[in-house]
Amino acid sequence: MKVAITADWLNSFGGAERVLLELHDMFPEAPIFTTVHYPRALPPSMQNWDVRTSFLQKIPLARRRHQTFLPLMPLAFEQFDLGDYDVVLTTSSSCAKGVITRPGTLNLCYCYTPSRYLWDLYHEYTRSHKARALIAPIIHWLRMWDRLSADRVDYFVAISHEVAGRIKRHYGRESEVIYPQVDVDRSVPNRRPPEDFYLVVSRLVAYKRIDLAVKAATRLGRRLIVVGTGPEFKKLKAIAGPTVEFLHSRSDAEIADLYARCRAFLFPGFEDFGITPVEAQAAGRPVVAYGKGGATETVIDGVTGVLFSEQNVASLTAALLQLDKLSLDSVTIRRNAERFDRSEFRRRLARMIDKQVHSESGSSVVPRMHTEFMESA
Pick from 105, 202, 306, 356: most CB atoms within 10 A? Predict the structure, then answer.
């Protein structure tokens, strides 16, 4: 059976692109349909993929600033002719789920979240925007299209229970939760005692709330290493005390080493899932995280870290002081991370796809090379 994969856009590398790496490895012959493609921003392992772009690719500005062209993305995805495919895996937090498929084609959406700029965070995104009056009718139209296009999906898979709740609330649809894969073997516990520094690994954007970690470390006079780049860098640098160090980008190997050596990993944002806290736990290190969203599904309060209740400096500071009083076991922390290993992601997704294809056509879509995941289910 022929499989195709969709993605909202391919012009940066983050959690969604890591999922695509796994899907491409599972279905190496499946082409990737997307709005815009900017290969220079992607790792070498993605350079030779069969990527098929929309008419937006012909607009140079769209490749780097895709947000400007969001109103055209529904049209872009509806123009893709997927009539030759039996299964379409739509990976989406925006418009990629809205492709038009023929009767009998399975549209299985791996949903990162219903578009937060349309739903949960609409007012936060637009409150201070100078052109809010002009944006409002466009967002209204996109919201209606988003809701209607959700009916084109046969089965939803959510990346977390947090996202499953949004799918139910906004689309009126049930979904199965399959957590994104984490390469837990990339991070291994350090046999030596941890060093005296906290760690943040993140894009430096406002909603990640890295400012809380910087302010808390400065207030306590404790060392904090921040790995990442983004538009908030100058603001964070301005509020950072002498104990805060910014390392910008680092390789996967360097980050794994920092995970293993840090005192604890800090995760102050409200995320749908959050891969980095799991990677830190794979290294046996505790996580101090905001106690809402995906962190509540990956961090066990008092066992593998500490969850703080209010998204402010005082609450995070109190959590750091609470962690000082705990004696947490690195083996237990590592074992918790193993629940999210990539083999579990592949096994569960392969089993679900096979189940749905069998129910539709009585045949199997899962390649022979992945039989071991099915047999271990």
Answer: 306
Fold of the domain built from segment(s) 185-339 = Rossmann fold (3.40.50)
The DSSP 8-state label assigned to residue 300 in this structure reads -
CA 320, 325, 331, 335 torsion: positive or negative?
Answer: negative
CA separation, residue 83 to residues 86, 100, 156 (Å): 8, 9, 21
Lowest mean pLDDT among 62-71, 81-90, 108-117, 279-288: 62-71
Cβ 302 vs Cβ 323: under 8 Å: no
Same fold flag, 3-181+341-375 and 185-339: yes
Going from N- to C-terminal start, the domains of the chain cover 3-181+341-375, 185-339
Structure tokens at 70: 């969001």
Q: Measuring CA to CA, which residue among 71, 67, 69 is closest to residue 145?
A: 71
Third-level CATH fold of 3-181+341-375: Rossmann fold (3.40.50)
Q: pLDDT per residue over 267-302, tens digit each?
A: 999 999 999 999 999 999 999 999 999 999 999 999
- The owner of tokens 């520094």 is 197
- Rounded to the nearest 5°, which phi and psi values hold at 104? 100, -15
- Which pTM does this prediction carry? 0.85
What CA–CA distance (Å, rounded) separates 73 from 56? 8
Provide CB contacts within 8 A for 177, sequence distance 6+.
157, 158, 159, 160, 161, 163, 164
